[in-house]
Input
Amino acid sequence: MTRLKFDHVACSRGGRLLFEDLNLTLKAGEAALVTGANGVGKSSLLRLAAGLLEPEDGEILRDGRIALAAEASALDEDEGLFAALAFWARLDGQDDAAVGPALAAMGLAPLRQVPVRLLSTGQRRRATIARVIASAAPIWLLDEPASGLDAASLDALASVMAAHRANGGIILVASHQPLGLEGASEVAL
Amino acid sequence: MNAFAALVRRDLARAFAHGGAWLPLVFYLLVATLFPFAIGPDPALLGKVGGGVLWTAALLAALLPVERLVRPDLAAGIIDQLVVRGQSDEAIAAAKLTAHWLSFGPLLMLATLPAAALLNLDRATVMRLEIGLALGTPGLAALGLAVAALTAGLRGAGALIGLVMLPLAVPLLIFGASPGAGALKLLAATSLMFVAGAPFVAGAALRAGRT
Output
């Protein structure tokens, strides 16, 4: 059973307490939107969920594989877009065939041979989301997925997120924008 | 293909992508070429100091790729993504160590043949040098990786890398350049110690840097 649970979690960075006593439970098909001003700890919350940071206090339970779209795209600059995504898809135990539909879902299909270093900011963001889609992981952690996206890409993002939830996936997203997540709980930091 | 092999393959491909892996080789040959200009064309003298010269050149050549080993991957979020996928920092470091050695150790051993000819080394010295490099370059690679991981979070770490790594490499230099079977055994032991320890040092450094 896919699940992501924060149990009385506290997070501090550089000796400064960002938040404490945070409780959150996401089950299959659920989503949560993390909101708050810059520097309040949205990205830290996602890094906690991904296991990249240890909580100061409390416990985080993850039932299911995790895919993280952080600020850095983590795609090899010199590789073609398809090859760069296929590297991660293989590490995720997926076939190269998983990459094509993920690229298409984010409107990147025509760019599959283009080296990553030539992509624009918005295209990189979309490529990062395509990496998450291709991973087939049930738990998605998206850090500002909408930054730099145009209207058409925002629609694509909303529809892939809806499809993921319809398939029983979980989404935890930090964003300033509403992103069209219906029925998502809000975590205001 | 398992994750370790995939990582080694990726790092190797990146090392050779811009001809970067050829730089230590060219540097090594260049030092071997410069030395006879500096100390004169006396074949006996060159033959005598040549082994030590090539070891020093190997040490300096091993410094060149160190700055590119960890820092770019850390900045691009590659290491974070590997950790999210359940790879341990030690396993990432071990894969990087393997790829790093493969990208410069064998090339250096190959380049030793023309370099030895430039320095008028006899057959026995060349054999000794090749065996020494085969045993010692994994240790050099391990030191390079550990230092790369330790300095990855620092700005302007380029100069610091040499200052940290070269003193630690002194045992490899001493045992590598001195004659006798005993020295080779000590060289192998030192190298083995570095290779065994480096993934843990580098792994701990990566973990500590993740705040």
In short: The two ends of chain A are 28 Å apart (CA to CA). Chain A has two domains: 1-64+138-189, 76-136. The mean pLDDT of chain A is 91. The longest helix of chain A spans residues 151-166.
